[in-house]
Amino acid sequence: MLQEDSPGEKFLAEGGFGRVYKSRKNDMAIIIKYVKGEVAKKYKEESKILESLNNGSIVGYKGTRQKGDQLGIEMEYCERGSLSECL
Questions:
Q1: 2 falls within a domain
Q2: Is 15 within the bounds of a domain?
Q3: Is there a contact between 64 and 51 (Cβ–Cβ < 8 Å)?
Q4: 68 in a domain, yes or no?
Q5: Residue 37: per-residue pLDDT
Q6: Domain for residue 25, yes or no?
Q7: Could you tell me the CATH number of the domain that includes residue 75?
């Protein structure tokens, strides 16, 4: 399937729960994971918890955004890839 980038968003990957894009927010690189349906409802609840976490050992939560019927979860971009790739 052809992935179209939204302005300011670069498509990175697609998984079972949604699509992941790289973008910028306040001059910082972030990733945005778009989910919809029941997964979006769950992430909306979890985002309230993520908002309260502030620890250098945890990837930082940067906010949420709406794109049509999808919820976008904004997190810090980790340049070195996934945790499993670093281990």
A1: no
A2: yes
A3: no
A4: yes
A5: 87
A6: yes
A7: 3.30.200.20
Show Cβ contacts of residue 41 under 8 Å, excluding neighbours closer than 6 positions: none
Q: DSSP 3-state helix, strand, coil percentages of the chain (rounded to 5)?
A: 20, 40, 40
Number of domains present in the structure of the chain = 1
Q: Give the Å distances, CA to CA, from 16 to 2, 19, 30, 49, 62.
A: 17, 9, 21, 23, 22
Q: Which two tokens stand for residue 58?
A: 């945890």
Which residues have a Cβ under 8 Å from the Cβ of 15 and sit 6 or more positions away?
none
Q: Tokens 């349906």 appear where?
A: 37
The whole domain housing 15 covers 10-79
**4-53 tens-digit pLDDT:** 556 789 999 998 889 999 999 988 999 999 998 888 888 888 888 888 88
